[in-house]
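Quick one, probably user error.
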């Protein structure tokens, strides 16, 4: 079921009949690019073209074939091997001998991933780029890379603090959160990964300052206006379509629509800063008859939707002068960020050089640097007379430049712009589209493969209709209806197959009571989602059907292994589907990527490797001795320990050494074990970790032991070993530190229903495909505070320091707009990939069939809003009685006795009387209990003061410190200035804090009523407390247990009436907001004071002092 190409019929050689498109691609010469639709046999075509080249005299030593996964590269080699063997079977002796030579070269041929090719070049030409040719390779997200990045950024920040770096101070000012630099560190690390996909990212960083000029502003605004013009024209086109379909006889509507169209067309000619005109000044006519009212509602919805999209084009852009000022001032942040990124790059590169490792981005950038050396480039070009690239739509900017420099006159590029789904990795389908147009214009051969050999006619008809409507020039940069329509390959019976959309409805919000038959609430059948039950119903239907098998040309019963469920993400939806299927007794694989490191056999091998690497470890030694490598039992280990009785602190490894004085079976096995380990330690100096694991398996009996029972354990060990390829044992162990995960090999395809993400399904095919809820949103919230574009770089917001607000600049809007359009392309492509995995039948799940408006697809947030579900085959699916019974573990023979059910529940399912006490903390802080301190950002977006928005971390801290030290009897500015000088000279206030304090403001604050007379009272400043309070009084619980609460009160004054708690805040929030946020905190402080001081709560008063607004709030 898992063929990587639609051309499965090659196994029936006599029946293979190439299409004209395939023949044209195979016979093409020179530079060729092929746009290959899903299931069109592109890999088969590439292999046949390569075989043809070999037959014509090309040596495999002079061929470069690049793809983007190790699995795909291995499959390509295997298919090439099979194709050559087939050719040998029908060739004469001389030709057979020549083909045999080429067959022997397949193992060492340059048919690999782009990174393997880069690594090979760099190990050959290491001297040309100034590196050590024995370098190791790390992934940017493995434990070693994370450690090196942490070292780099920690060292960099430490230096910045010591040197008081100006750029660093700028960034800390705006990106410090929670009173620390962790957020800024993470921002740098995530931004660095985005940056590295750019071919010359150093030049991009260096040119940052040049962008933030008047000339740069004009450039950005020009492109922003071009985008706005395109949007206006698109809206005008939608108005024209609506007008042609709108069936109202009233001329007023036609006049309004024409007026709206003219407004949209003229809007595109205006400056982006010009105020928008109303879409129309004409008023909607009064509708009297039912038909008029119905037409009026249709018109009103369209106009309302159109108005929203019209206003969104300009958004909240201000006037030109204001926007230019914000753009230019944001440049200081952009320049500082670029400088810090460049220095981080240098620091990280230096650490990797010291460790002699390269990451995958390094492989690409160093190869590109090598190819800029004309001598090296000439030698490489001379070596590779033919270059083949598969999945060309997935290249990133660096890879594109590498391929362009390596490729000569014989280049064969294959891909499909509709299957470019890795935009989040930096892949750009734009390169494929541009090169296809260039070759089509005479710079080479631009060909298409349109016949689909994978899917049935019913599936193809559905897919062509669906994507013919949503993949358009506006949304994707090409029109699916012109050039991308797929034709059936003719392998299926005529008219076979089909696709349907299933509406399953919303889940009930009320949680159901547990079933009587329950174990800790985990009863089978309890809590199933409607989608899970609907998918189960479809699965049950499918398992009663047959499907046509292309390989055998026969009808076959559909089995669980023929069904695959695809989800957009691993989420609650997927969990609900898995639960329903599992509870019904169906095997499900791929629901979660299991980690082979959690498997006992892998843990055992990991301990053996650890012991080989370092023999001074007791736990790995014990594990190794209990394995076939040692051949001992737990009783044997006990005897070894007992032999050294009395030496309780003696390490177990020393106990083993002492036991060697004996001459029994255990001692002989210990000697044999030591000899084996020494031999493995010797060979580990020259072999990779993968090769050492092979030696352990072969020489100890482990391989035979783990091959039993279906061989799943051996598969896990092979998967584990594959991760150690190219690494020493020590390097492999270091790589696995820090939470690494290795996905377990998938279960056999014949025994389980598959569930996987749409991304993971790329390259696979299944007789039956079920796509999970298409109503689920695929849009996340806006990505980073620093959106990135490969032309303009990072686009920081403008920070209004006076009002503590942030604004998106014109560059930020432009970059967000470009990224949004790219996201839509990727989502459409992903949906296309998911649909085209289906061979025989396609089922698409939808929670509902949303009312479709013509304009919905322009701002869609889910697949369901991209098209009108009512125009496609659809039904409402409800689980049958048999399906409902299946998830309850049996067949219900009659209605349950509710009285008996209630009696059983009362007797056997009575709730735990102290359930609320179970999860109470023993000790907590006031802020933890009240969930405070989530955000501590200096600024917040200007949008209605959204968010938590505490302000002025440094300034607030400075004022807080002064109030902790000051004499409340001194309120005049002169006296306060003397205090400030005294505090600074004594070191109680830092120079930085002194610079943030204003004596006039402090005088105004100290004159507030709450501070009057405090100098005559007994005061407790910054008084910490620890007390036990009833949980139900301070938390949302009914439990009365005591909880230890710790906290600190800014100021506690003992008054004649009792006590006064004063809490300082420095916030832009209104009084109402502060009361809402902090009233519970002050109530907790009141309880603590009353308890500790042994007074009634009514004698404790609480007040919030907002230093920022100079207001007091009495609670």
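Nope, works fine. Designed sequence:
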């Amino acid at each position: 079921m898992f063929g990587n190409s639609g051309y499965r019929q090659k196994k029936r050689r006599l029946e293979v009949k190439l299409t004209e498109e395939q023949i044209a691609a195979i016979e093409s010469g020179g530079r060729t690019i092929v746009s290959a639709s899903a299931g069109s046999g592109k890999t088969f075509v590439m292999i046949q073209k390569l075989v043809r080249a070999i037959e014509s005299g090309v040596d495999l030593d002079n061929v470069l074939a690049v793809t983007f996964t190790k699995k795909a590269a291995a499959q390509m080699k295997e298919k090439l091997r099979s194709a050559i063997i087939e050719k040998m079977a029908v060739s004469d002796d001389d030709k057979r001998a020549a083909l045999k030579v080429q067959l022997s070269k397949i193992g060492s041929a340059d048919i690999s991933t782009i990174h393997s090719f880069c690594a090979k070049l760099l190990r050959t030409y290491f001297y040309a780029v100034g590196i050590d040719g024995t370098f190791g390779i790390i992934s940017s997200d493995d434990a070693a890379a994370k450690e090196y990045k942490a070292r780099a950024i920690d060292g960099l920040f430490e230096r910045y603090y010591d040197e008081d770096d100006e750029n660093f101070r700028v960034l800390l000012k705006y990106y410090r959160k929670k009173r620390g630099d962790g957020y800024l560190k993470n921002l740098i690390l995530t931004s660095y990964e985005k940056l590295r996909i750019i071919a010359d990212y150093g030049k991009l960083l260096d040119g940052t300052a040049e962008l933030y000029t008047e000339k740069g502003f004009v450039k950005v605004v020009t492109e922003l206006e071009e985008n706005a013009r395109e949007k206006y024209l698109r809206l005008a086109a939608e108005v024209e379509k609506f007008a042609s379909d709108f069936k109202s006889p009233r001329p007023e509507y036609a006049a309004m629509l024409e007026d709206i169209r003219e407004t949209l067309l003229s809007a595109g000619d205006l400056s982006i800063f010009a105020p928008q005109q109303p879409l129309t000044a004409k008023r909607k006519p009064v509708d009297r008859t039912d038909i008029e009212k119905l037409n009026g509602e249709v018109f009103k919805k369209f106009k309302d939707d159109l108005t929203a999209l019209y206003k969104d084009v300009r958004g909240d852009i201000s006037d030109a002068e204001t926007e230019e000022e914000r753009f230019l001032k944001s440049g200081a942040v952009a320049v500082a960020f670029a400088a810090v990124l460049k220095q981080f790059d240098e620091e990280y590169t230096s650490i990797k050089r010291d460790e002699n490792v390269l990451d995958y981005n390094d492989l690409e950038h160093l190869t590109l640097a090598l190819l800029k050396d004309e001598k090296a480039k000439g030698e490489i070009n001379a070596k590779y007379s033919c270059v083949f690239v598969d999945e060309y739509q997935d290249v990133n900017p660096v890879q594109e430049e590498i391929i362009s420099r390596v490729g000569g006159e014989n280049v064969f590029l294959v891909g499909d712009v509709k299957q470019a789904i890795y935009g989040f990795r930096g892949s750009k389908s734009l390169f494929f589209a541009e090169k296809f147009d260039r070759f089509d214009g005479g710079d080479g051969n631009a060909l298409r493969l349109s016949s689909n050999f994978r899917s049935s006619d019913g599936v193809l008809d559905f897919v062509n209709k669906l994507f013919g409507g949503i993949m358009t020039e506006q949304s994707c940069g090409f029109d699916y209806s012109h050039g991308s329509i797929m034709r059936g390959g003719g392998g299926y019976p005529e008219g076979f197959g089909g696709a349907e959309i299933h509406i399953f409805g919303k889940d009930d919000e009320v949680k159901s009571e547990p079933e009587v038959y329950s174990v800790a609430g985990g009863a089978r059948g309890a809590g199933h989602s409607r989608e899970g039950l609907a998918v189960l119903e479809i699965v049950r239907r499918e398992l009663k059907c047959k499907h046509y098998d292309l390989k055998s040309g026969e009808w076959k019963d559909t089995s669980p292994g023929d069904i695959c469920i695809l989800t957009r993400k691993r989420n609650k939806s997927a969990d609900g589907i898995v639960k329903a299927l599992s509870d019904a007794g169906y095997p499900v694989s791929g629901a979660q990527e299991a980690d082979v490191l959690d498997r006992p056999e892998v843990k055992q091998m990991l301990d053996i490797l650890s012991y080989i690497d370092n023999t001074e470890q007791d736990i790995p030694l014990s594990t190794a001795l209990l394995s076939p490598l040692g051949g001992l039992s737990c009783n044997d280990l006990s005897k070894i320990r007992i032999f050294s009785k009395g030496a309780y602190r003696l390490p177990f490894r020393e106990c083993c050494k002492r036991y060697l004085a004996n001459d029994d079976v255990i001692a002989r096995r210990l000697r044999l074990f030591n000899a084996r380990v020494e031999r493995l330690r010797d060979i580990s100096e020259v072999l990779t970790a993968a090769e050492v694991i092979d030696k352990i398996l072969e020489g100890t009996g482990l391989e035979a032991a783990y091959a039993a029972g279906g061989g799943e354990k051996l598969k896990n060990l092979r998967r584990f070993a594959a991760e150690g390829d190219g690494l020493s044992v020590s390097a492999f162990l270091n790589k696995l530190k820090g939470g690494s995960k290795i996905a377990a090999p998938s279960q056999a395809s014949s025994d389980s229903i598959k569930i996987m993400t749409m991304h993971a399904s790329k390259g696979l095919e299944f007789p039956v495909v079920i796509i999970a809820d298409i109503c689920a949103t695929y849009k996340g919230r806006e990505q980073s505070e620093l959106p990135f574009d490969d032309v303009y770089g990072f686009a920081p917001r403008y920070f209004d320091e006076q009002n503590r607000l942030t604004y998106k600049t014109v560059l930020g809007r432009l970059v967000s707009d470009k990224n949004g359009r790219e996201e839509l392309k990727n989502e459409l492509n992903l949906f296309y990939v998911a649909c085209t995995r289906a061979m025989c039948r396609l089922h698409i799940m939808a929670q509902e069939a949303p009312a479709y408006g013509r304009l919905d697809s322009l701002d869609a947030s889910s697949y369901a809003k991209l098209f009108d579900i009512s125009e496609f085959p659809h039904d409402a699916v409800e689980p049958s009685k048999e399906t409902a019974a299946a998830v309850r573990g049996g067949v219900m023979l009659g209605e349950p006795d509710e009285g008996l059910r209630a009696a059983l529940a009362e007797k056997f399912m009575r709730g735990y009387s102290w359930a609320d006490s179970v999860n109470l903390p023993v000790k907590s802080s006031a802020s933890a209990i009240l969930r405070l301190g989530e955000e501590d950002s200096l600024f917040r977006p200007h949008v209605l003061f959204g968010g938590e928005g505490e302000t002025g971390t440094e300034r607030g801290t400075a004022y807080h410190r002064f109030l902790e030290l000051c004499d409340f009897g001194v309120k005049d500015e002169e006296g306060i200035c003397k205090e400030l000088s005294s505090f600074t000279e004594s070191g109680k206030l830092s120079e930085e804090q002194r610079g943030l304090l204003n004596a006039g403001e402090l005088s105004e604050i100290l004159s507030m009523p709450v501070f009057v007379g405090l100098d005559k009272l007994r005061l407790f400043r910054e008084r910490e407390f620890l007390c036990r309070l009833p949980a139900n009084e301070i938390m949302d619980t009914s439990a009365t247990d005591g909880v230890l609460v710790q906290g600190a009160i800014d100021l506690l004054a003992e008054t004649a009436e009792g006590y006064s708690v004063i809490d300082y805040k420095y916030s832009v929030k209104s009084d109402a907001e502060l009361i809402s946020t902090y009233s519970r905190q002050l109530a907790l402080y009141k309880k603590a004071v009353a308890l500790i001081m042994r007074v009634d709560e009514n004698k404790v008063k609480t007040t919030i002092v907002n230093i920022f607004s100079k207001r007091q709030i009495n609670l």
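Residues 215-322 form one domain.
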